[in-house]
Amino acid sequence: MALRLIADFDLEKDVLPWLRVQQAASAAAGARGGGPGVLENNYECLRVLNVEQNRNIIYTYKDNKGNVFFGLYDYQTKQNEHLYTFEKDLQVVSCSVNREKTLLATSLVQAAKEGRSNELQPGSKCLTLLVEIHPINNVKVLKAVDSYIWVQFLYPHVESRPQRENHLLLLSEEKYIEQFHIQVVQEDGNRVVIKNSGHLPRERIAEDFVWAQWDMSEQRLYYIDLKKSRSVLKCIQFYADEHFNLMFEAPLDISLSDSGFKLVNFGYSHLQDQEELSEHLTLCVFTNHTGSLCVCYCPNFDSWEQITYSVFYFHKGHSKTFTTTLGSVDSRVTKGITFLNLDYYVAVYLPGHFFHLLNIQHPDLICHSLFLTENSEVIDMLPHSPLQSLSGSLVLDSCSGKLYRAFLNQSYLLEFLWNSRLDCERMALLHCVLSCGQDPRRLEAKIIQWISENISACHSFDLIQEFIIASSYWSIYPETSNMDKLLPYSSLLTWDTEIPGITLVTEEIPLPLMKVHSFKGYWEKLNSNLEYVKYSKPHLHYNNSVVRREWHNLISEEKTGKRRSTVYVRNILDNAIKVISNLEAKNLEPRLTPLFQEEDNHQQLLIGLMVSELRDHLLRHLQGVEKKKIEQMVLDYVSKLLDLICQILEASWRKHNLHPWALHFNRQASAAEFAVFHIMTRILEATNTLFLPLPPGFHTLHVILGVRCLPLHNLLHYIDHGVLLLTEAAVTRLMKDLDNTEKNEKLKFSIIMRLPPLTGQKICRLWDHPVSSNIISRNHVKRLLQNYNKQPWSSVMDKSSFSVEFLPLNYFIHILTDIESSNPALYAFEGHDNVDAKFVEEAALKHTAMLLGL
Questions:
Q1: How many Cβ atoms sit within 10 Å of the Cβ of residue 790?
Q2: pTM
Q3: Apex CA 517: angle with CA 514 and CA 523, to 5°?
């Protein structure tokens, strides 16, 4: 299925066998209370109560007498231990244990049984206890009130030494939150007791809240209070040095009633299990290491005909409200909507109806999120039991007592990509798969195989473009924060096509107001994201517009023979050499395709310019990252762009089993060469639009295949429209390899006439043919006359060994001879083995006579 759930803990497998062993040992020894009691197959009483910050799991069960037992599963050692037994038939509301496992806090209520007298203190509905359990000793009553209480120990991140003071959160159904400070001392060796248990310091940290969520991993408390009927989300961060800070306040445009009350991740009691989830709102806060802050909200369901849910992307400054219509309403609709935190994504699903995978790093375009309706087989493969998303990727199924680590199933998503038919699904799946980051080389090979099979299937975007940009982005993204703001994530800037089955409304939202001024870790990244939303418009994503302009300037200067500082150009070409060296160092396998075997000056200039501009872009906006690291990141990024193009070409070459003789002109082109030529043309189209560099040698190979595959008129059409770019290496090979048949002469002449002047002059000297000689002679005479200053007749009418009877032509010959003799080094005729110099002189004179009409 799309979600991959790996069980880290299972009550049935990790606890029940241990309990049975304890039961057998207890029965054999005739113990009456020193260990777990007899379950007598009453296994449904066994359930998870809480998951602590260190992933230790607290569970409870009852014996045949109704006594309540507390046990703990140590996540590190994979061992169980008995914590405490409460010898009364009560129901556990909440439970927590401190990090050292010396104190246990719990709240209990009267078990719902007819005829049972109240075993709690008179007038109280809920009893909250603090128990010394190392060893089992005193029991301290914290609260005996007529409202439900939930408890949670704080876990400082410093684990090198025992804590002398413990801190306990206490949340009341009466909508207040208190923190107790509990000092402990050691007596009689390892015995731990509460100091001054008669008077425990406490402070009230929140009041009048209607919703609260505990982040056990990051030790954060999120809660919502109502100010003038307006919902305000607040967050308190608890620290190891015993203090806490209110980090931010953020207004939420949601409807909450002050008569309601809901807790998230404060244990998993029967009270929540007994509620009909569809009658209550679902709201949770998700964060990740990149500084994202999302609030997922689904209001009360008015009907089962359609469902509306919202996601507030505070780190992006906007919210999206989604509405989906349920195709059918049946008996399976018994549970509420589920939100799961999957790092870069949030999964929203209703079992049997829909599955929505929301991209929280790049939520702007809906096509980057995957939406599937009940018609997809993926829906039926999702878990039907309600899952509770804990910190990070941890997920608890409280019904089965299993704790999972949740991931996107890369293999399944890749298979689904092959079978998808909608462009929006293909786009979303491509990004989902790449974000998984598992074995990228193998993954890229599979995606390239899919692209080659579906090269023309997408109409809304270019597959090759999207793959190159997205894969390059994910290759460099983990290197440092803020890369999502500086590098392009997608080739698309807009998406106007509707997604079947869902509608959305996007709105700007007020940003959280940060209440502190010094940030570290996650808070520094969140603050950076908020600052970016405030001040960075337009967006800072890199693009090649400056590179395009500068590259065209350099090429124009080359054509006119004017070139700026050689040091500047040399530095640009040095950048290209570094990229190619970096690429070759990472790719040790021999290449099938003849790339990187020639000096392609134009592409090397483009590569070098991109390195220079991207480096400057990152240096401007990446504060606090050393220059050397940025330079290496740039080399890796540009190398990745080129490597992906090479991989696409290599895969096509390998798929069609091309051999070296494909590069010779004297063979008929095969269907395989047509296919490779088509792929290369699509690559060129994709890179030209984004102005991305190509591997040196690409254009030469493309021209050679074009000459072999296309009729002459099509070939010239491709050349004239810039699809085929004539390189000196390709034309040189063509002039040498093809003989002078009438067909080949026409091809050669057509290509020579399309070459830049300087390149054309070089190529003409390689072709032993009157046409090339004629061209050479014209160029030579033109060059002689470019700077000619007219001299008196007498100065040029000395005796000559070469004269004709026609005086104007004789005069012209004398002019040419005089120019050549005046500066032999500058105007010497550049001959070649394939050119008859005498013929060139005669051709030049003949051409002059033709121009004069003689």
A1: 7
A2: 0.86
A3: 60
